[in-house]
């Protein structure tokens, strides 16, 4: 198997007396969607924040292309961060900004681009995600599903190599959840980014995931293909999957 794009090695993280991550070992591979599952409060979002650098581990190491951040010079670390983008749980759109300005924000903050180049990039993403005609609208004027699409456009406008999704379908009805999953899958194939997703939407999210990792009591108790997850005999894994109504023959 190829070298992982991202690899956690015995990563620990605590907040006071609360030990959130207790020796996480995890491998994420390029060009795949890896979904992290587990009960609420297990630290899935904390794990995600370690990947993008919003949180640092208390101990352990995180490798990117075989090297840790500590092994890289400052410019290399900055270049690495530019490869990432993040789609937040609640879309995190700014209500006081138009759709256009929300999508353009990462380019204005992080890229040294001229105004016309920013305009061209935003226009391209609006077209690619079928958002033409709503540029001057505000988030409050949009449906929940449309807000998710705008949030995805903002996440993709910098042409990232890695996109992190934190519960991207929270608050949506079943039909719109499926629509967002399909949208993420379609654009992942189209733009070939590596997707890392935290989700409770079992089993729906499995249909777009090449790999699943389960976090339980601060450790990864399973990581692998969906079919292998269904066949896993670990009682912790089986006990989490079974109440969701998921059967091995479903995948």
Integer average pLDDT: 89
Calculate the terminal CA-CA distance, rounded to whole Å. 23 Å
Which radius of gyration do the C-alpha atoms yield?
A: 18 Å
Question: Based on CA inertia axes, which overall geometry fits?
Answer: globular
Name the structural class: alpha/beta
The main β sheet shows up as: 6 strands, mixed
> How much strand content do the residues show?
15-25%
Determine the fraction of residues in helical runs and give it as a percent range.
Answer: 25-40%
What is the total tally of β strands? 10
State the helix count.
8
Poorly predicted runs: none
List keywords for this structure.
6-stranded mixed sheet; 4-stranded antiparallel sheet; alpha/beta; 251 residues
Architecture blueprint of SSEs:
Elements lengths: L5 E10 L2 E11 L4 E5 L6 H9 L6 E6 L2 E2 L5 H8 L2 E4 L11 H12 L4 H14 L15 H13 L5 E5 L7 H18 L2 E5 L12 E6 L2 E6 L1 H6 L3 H7 L10
Parallel strand pairs: 3-8, 3-9, 6-7, 7-8
Antiparallel strand pairs: 1-2, 1-4, 4-5, 9-10
Written overview of the protein:
With 251 residues, the chain is α/β, with parallel strands linked by helices. It is 35% helix and 24% strand. The chain has 8 helices and 10 strands. Strands 6-7-8-3-9-10 form a 6-stranded mixed beta sheet, with helices on both faces. Helix 3 packs parallel to helix 5 and helix 5 runs parallel beside helix 6.
In short:
The protein is of the alpha/beta class and 251 residues long.
């Amino acid at each position: 198997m190829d070298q992982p794009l991202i690899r956690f090695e015995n990563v620990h993280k605590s907040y006071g007396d609360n030990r959130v991550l207790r020796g996480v070992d995890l491998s994420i591979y390029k060009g795949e969607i890896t979904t992290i599952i587990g009960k609420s409060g297990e630290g899935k979002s904390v794990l995600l924040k370690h990947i993008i650098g919003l949180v640092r581990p208390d101990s352990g190491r995180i490798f990117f292309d075989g090297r840790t951040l500590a092994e890289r010079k400052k410019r290399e670390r900055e270049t690495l961060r530019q490869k990432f983008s993040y789609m937040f749980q609640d879309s995190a759109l700014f209500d006081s900004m138009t759709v256009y300005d929300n999508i353009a924000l990462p380019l204005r903050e992080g890229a040294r681009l001229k105004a016309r180049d920013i305009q061209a990039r935003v226009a391209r993403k609006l077209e690619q995600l079928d958002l033409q005609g709503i540029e001057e609208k505000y988030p409050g004027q949009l449906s929940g599903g449309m807000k998710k699409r705008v949030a995805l456009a903002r996440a993709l406008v910098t042409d990232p190599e890695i996109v992190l999704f934190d519960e991207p379908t929270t608050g949506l009805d079943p039909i719109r959840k499926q629509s967002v999953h399909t949208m993420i899958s379609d654009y992942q194939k189209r733009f070939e980014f590596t997707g890392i997703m935290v989700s409770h939407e079992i089993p729906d999210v499995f249909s777009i995931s090449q790999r699943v990792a389960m976090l339980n009591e601060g450790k990864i108790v399973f990581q692998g293909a969906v079919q292998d997850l269904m066949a896993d005999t670990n009682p912790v894994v089986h006990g989490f999957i079974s109440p969701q109504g998921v059967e091995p023959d479903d995948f």
